[in-house]
Amino acid sequence: MADSEAFDFQIARIIDVIRDTNATVVGLQFPEGFKRRASGIAHEIEEATGSQILISGNPCFGACDIDVDLAHRVDILFHFGHAVLDDSSYAQNVYFIEVRSNAEIEKVVNKSLKNLEGQRIGLITTVQHVHKLQAACEILRSHGKVCVVGKGDAKIAYPGQVLGCNFSSARTEPCDEYLYIGSGYFHPMGVALSTGRRVLIADPFVNEIRELDISKVLKQRSAVIGKSLDATLFGIIVCSKPGQERMQLALKLQNMIRKHGKDARIIMMDLVTPDQLLQFKVDAFVNTACPRLAIDEVGRFNAPMLTPPELEIVLGEKKWEDLVFDEITA
Amino acid sequence: MADSEAFDFQIARIIDVIRDTNATVVGLQFPEGFKRRASGIAHEIEEATGSQILISGNPCFGACDIDVDLAHRVDILFHFGHAVLDDSSYAQNVYFIEVRSNAEIEKVVNKSLKNLEGQRIGLITTVQHVHKLQAACEILRSHGKVCVVGKGDAKIAYPGQVLGCNFSSARTEPCDEYLYIGSGYFHPMGVALSTGRRVLIADPFVNEIRELDISKVLKQRSAVIGKSLDATLFGIIVCSKPGQERMQLALKLQNMIRKHGKDARIIMMDLVTPDQLLQFKVDAFVNTACPRLAIDEVGRFNAPMLTPPELEIVLGEKKWEDLVFDEITA
Lengths: 330, 330
Description:
The structure is a homodimer. The first copy, chain A, is of the alpha/beta class. Chain A is built from twelve helices and 13 strands. In chain A, strand 8 (198-203) and strand 9 form a beta hairpin. Chain A is flat, with a radius of gyration of 21 Å.
């Protein structure tokens, strides 16, 4: 079931849009997990419409990560796998094809009932499963639970949806605990840190309930903060991707660092990787790009990489107890 | 001597330009080998001018590879290590700081005399040493040789300069053999393949003369061509970097492939790496981006990667004897 065959790429709708708009040059952008389907989908669309297809070969990690260059070269760019972000207006010719999963969630939600301890259950998921949240709610309610599906801020397209950089839908209403429908660990970790509540993972692909343990990531973050306490030169990373660019925050952090008698350089880049930062000789990095980077790639950079909230702890502007995941909110 | 301390970053000139133009936001872009100097140079410029400095963290492989996004965000972008290309007009606020090497070349040129066999010697080098070609010529002439320093096409800023994708200065006038001043292998290999002549490498950093042997790279290219003979689906790579974008060539190759009853998809990307192409399931790639990629990264892609001239051999449009390096000429 984890195979991408179980996802709906909406080819018929895409062909209709191309015909309706008379698009002759069409771009296709896929996140990494769907790129292996690119050639077949391109062939199908080209056969049906006769349009010239350009496939984006660039990495793609979210709706924040539109291939703006490709969007400028084509009549329409179809961006697969993510829901629109509120700030996507920079590319008017981008269509978001959300690629909903066909995975059944009833079984795993039923299975979760014996592990749920609270009364008010917050339901959270990624865009691939948002269309199944109503069914999940009904199961919870039929077993006497209160089901909470929070609206979230303007970056969130659907109630109950969370992004790797935005857990606002989990904070809309107070809950006793959360049930995350999906397979990854990052989104539920963000919710746990952001709300201080227990999060259960209901993985519909393997029909498994997993209890989330955030102690390992908290230890890692403490180590990164500890290693940065003596830093005197920071490299503040700013990403040029439209949905990740936080230059104002970077300038604010640079000022804050200098106020503390230390110094910082601003490094502007598209794709942030450990390899690409290897040549920059600083004592610590501060990442204002995708908040996941510092967490997912921990230990792989040549200097400790802090998130903006962690920098404030390093500088003594905030307390260790205030540690949360970095978010890009509306 | 190979240390970058031996290079001239023209800091005083940069400070003058910033003061003269009243630039308040300044971008700095370095090729990989100079990135470790970025923080120190940024500090020096900021101290002297008070301008806000943004350092490009993106990979940079040539004058073809301007950080256009950064250029749009700053008043002036200083691009280090490369001479201007003729088609750099897309970014009017880019200053090229060529970073000349202070390495002495007299000794190694004198040393080369006993290895030179011909009479008319073509002198070639990269931009780091072009200011030393006159001195090299005088040494050759004083020993009875004829010294040829070809002008090259419009992509070439200085007589005798070669790029990794342009050996036109070596073809300007016929020579018996070539003397390449520099440390790498790629540029002299391109000259050898492009002219069919012997090329000697005079490496001023280690004071060593090396005879170029192109047999290994020819064997590798033959293997890549051989492995692609049965390919039915090609992935044609087009780079979005302004100095590397060859969409018209890609479309021509796609048509040519289809004329032969095979098929091709066009993949558009910024940074071309083996990792980033891993998910694309094709029988062979054709690279219209930086010509070095197919050569330098041979065997590291998940399918054989051809250059455009090699594709023509695969399709039977050209003969194996016609094999040359791919070039981006004016």
